[in-house]
Amino acid sequence: MQVSIIIVNYNTAGLCIQCIGSVKKLITGLEYEIIVVDNASAGDSCLQITDAFPEVKLLRNQENLGFGRANNLGIEQAAGEYLFLLNSDTWLLNNAPAIFYHFMELPQNKQVGCCGGALFKPGGEGQAAYGNFPSLLEAFSYLGFYRLYKSYFRQHISPGVVNTSPADRPVDYISGADMFIRRQALTETGTFDPDFFLYFEETELSFRFKKKRWLSFIVPEAKIVHLEGASQQQTGTAFNPVKETLFMRSRKHFFVKCYGRVSATVMKILYGTSYCLSGILGRDKNWWQKLKILSKT
After folding, report:
1. Per-residue pLDDT for 235 more than 80?
2. Contact 105, 66 (CB under 8 A)
């Protein structure tokens, strides 16, 4: 088996079916399987998927295990030499799996552990496809200093970068929406850290890739639509304390694990200061709620 495509589903049966349909329509020239890991979706979500695609291997969890742990279960059951982790709210615009596979098989790319493609919103606008590792420089920049070096910040510090170049190139980490991973790299580094329920799991895994001298590459020839941006527009920008808490917990865990507790403490001070400044300047009406959540994480 060349490629195992793993899709985590949580109450997104319609989107998942659309995603699988795009794979079945566009993929050619590869021996592959599709594994759907369902995170205890409500209703008949699983039945809808198996009715539409009986050949798909479906793994059902009794509870929502989060992104990383669910993918780990799919990886355990996968037979592929490569693992293509694909979000349920995506669809392919071209034969991305074959593009990734042939890129990874090039002799000069044997040290590439992970790659991903260019991501787009449904309307065609570019979406963040890769990012830079979280850092104290990023936290410092959010005090307002990023305005002094906006272009540099967007490309070399920002955690989310929209691809603007057609060139294949190394990056810190690939968006979790479309990670094409060499199994050998996972064997050496391990799979997703189960302590990340949501957010930063792909970032931390990529950090381990780098420590083991595995590279992550953006391959813009592969093109994929990701609905995340559209769904945020539909639901508005209302402050969500649950998601904010998960985000801050995962960010702290990343800093503690990758940089140490001193760096994590400095990070919290910098972000706490930036929240206060945003409140004083009237830029963020939720600054006090964020500060309270930060103090508890």
Report:
1. no
2. no
